[in-house]
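Model it.
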Amino acid sequence: GQFIGHGIERSRPSFTEDVRSFLVGPAWLLGFVYRRLGIGY
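Modeled.
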């Protein structure tokens, strides 16, 4: 929801935000999947 909000507020996020979301997105998704599967990390 955080990144969707940025997309609504501004037509295009800054380069640094784009890179940050690109790096944080997969990491958050992996953490979510790991927790769902009960895998410790």
